[in-house]
Amino acid sequence: MNSEEQETVELLMNRLKLAREEATAIAISGITSIEEVAYIPVEELLEIGSIESERLLQIREYARRLLLPL
């Protein structure tokens, strides 16, 4: 994993409260920000095969809530 991916892992772990394994899988897939997690097309997000679809949708919803607080 390169340094940019490592920074993304740390960001996702801290902001989205993800386990290292989840954050790593997302970072390795090329996603680099919380905005991408929140707004990437669902089909692309679900291509991350090492995380269950239901969990990916939960992560996406949480990311959206962080970006659009009530």
Task: Note the overall shape.
Answer: globular
Largest sheet: none
The count of DSSP E runs of length 2 or more, i.e. the number of strands, is 0
Strand content: under 5%
Mean pLDDT figure: 94
Low-confidence stretches: none
The secondary structure category is: mainly alpha
Instruction: Tally the helices.
Output: 5
Helix content: 55-70%
Oligomerization: single chain
- Overall CATH class: Mainly Alpha
Full CATH superfamily name:
5' to 3' exonuclease, C-terminal subdomain
Give the second-level CATH assignment, the architecture. Orthogonal Bundle
Domain count: the total is 1
Rg, nearest Å: 11 Å
CA(first)-CA(last) distance:
36 Å
CATH domain fold name: DNA polymerase, domain 1
Order of helices and strands: HHHHH
